[in-house]
Amino acid sequence: MMNIGEAARASGVSAKMIRYYEETGLIPPAGRTGSGYRTYGPKEVQVLRFVRRARDLGFPMEKVGDLLALWRDRERASADVKRLAEGQIEALETRIREMMEMKAALEHLVHACAGDARPDCPILDDLGGRVAANHCSTTKN
Amino acid sequence: MMNIGEAARASGVSAKMIRYYEETGLIPPAGRTGSGYRTYGPKEVQVLRFVRRARDLGFPMEKVGDLLALWRDRERASADVKRLAEGQIEALETRIREMMEMKAALEHLVHACAGDARPDCPILDDLGGRVAANHCSTTKN
DNA sequence: ATGGGGGTTCCCATGATGGGAAGGTCAAGG
DNA sequence: CCTTGACCTTCCCATCATGGGAACCCCCAT
Q1: Is residue A25 assigned to a domain?
Q2: How far is B34 from chain A (nearest CA, A)?
Q3: Domain total in chain A
Q4: What is chain B's Cα-based Rg?
Q5: Cα separations in angstroms, B59 against A138, B66, B69, B90
Q6: Are B116 and A78 within 8 A, CB to CB?
Q7: What pLDDT was estimated at residue A129?
Q8: Mind listing the pLDDT tens digit for each residue in A127-139?
Q9: So what's the pLDDT on residue B129?
Q10: Is residue A102, in this structure, part of any structural domain at all?
């Protein structure tokens, strides 16, 4: 039996987060020593590592809860797990796409900017809503 | 002169956010009518649109503040603006990379999961820290 | 018994946004 | 003139996941 600090080190989840997960019901309340210290055994540490890995894969806490429930349910269908994972892949794809659009727009602007000591700057012109003078207009035709 | 609702519609920034930007000092305090309503002219709306576009490009509020300062400074060097934009591109790249790694890991797991009615699931096995039996182990040799 | 390194709870902050309550204001129409 | 509905004001709370820190208690080794 380990205390919360040891469990944190063993699982890679900070003590702060362990308490938070418990408070929000993601994980069941840990046992307590007579003086109120939380205690963790190997099984609890495994749960924490599970949570850690799922979070590392970008699952929001709520989905981690769903995954934990499936993990505990020996009657589960692997299809349910797969669905969750595919949903997460889609969520990631959406965010990746959004960020790549931002990046592309920025690269376009950066490309048009001289980046020297002069004040003229198509980046600011664009942000300010100006038409960017003569530099590849948005309505290309 | 428009009130905050009209300015919100004209700029694409919600009234709530306009007040927040003012409160945090990102934009200067708006003028007020005798009865306390905030008033906005075309110039103020342009500032709001500037903020909106910069946020759409993923700049955090702090950097938006920097951009606004450069925008207002007619002595600026475009190199300074470009540096900010390039920094933002890097920030985006980092986050994109992280998410693509998550996505790749998930795809790997999803690929290995039958996704049927049976409970056996390499996804859960992996999250639980098991070695995934005989299915392309992590230490491939 | 004392000191240092834990543990415990509770509150606050982040970043950017939305929701909502309580109360004042404005404009249009009866 | 008064009502009504849409709008404004401020203030508080919630999100999501995480960290910081205060105040206090506990355990072990010296």
Answers
A1: yes
A2: 30
A3: 1
A4: 25
A5: 22, 10, 14, 11
A6: yes
A7: 81
A8: 998 665 444 444 4
A9: 81
A10: no
